[in-house]
Amino acid sequence: xxxxxxxxxxxxxxxxxxxxxxxxxxxxxxxxxxxxxxxxxxxxxxxxxxxxxxxxxxxxxxxxxxxxxxxxxxxxxxxxxxxxxxxxxxxxxxxxxxxxxxxxxxxxxxxxxxxxxxxxxxxx
Length: 124
Known about the structure:
mainly alpha
């Protein structure tokens, strides 16, 4: 297996990940409730750009990803599933330093989002 080296690799990773997400019994319904069928191409393109910026240091993504998740009914079990699926997809297709960075970043992001959401909920 090769490492993640290009946008095409990112697209493969993202597409496979979301194919699994859509059919997942825990997180699939949450994504389905937030992303209409017609909006999936736009969401996927945003994720390609996000991960290309993060992993390949190519400019393009701007935004605040947490804000889209702030009011979602997502909890620890959702983040654990998201991270688990993400890591499995990366491991199924890639190996190397960038693949390891992708898994690290996904776990970091999941933990950060969960911490922020928990803090917001406690403050309410």
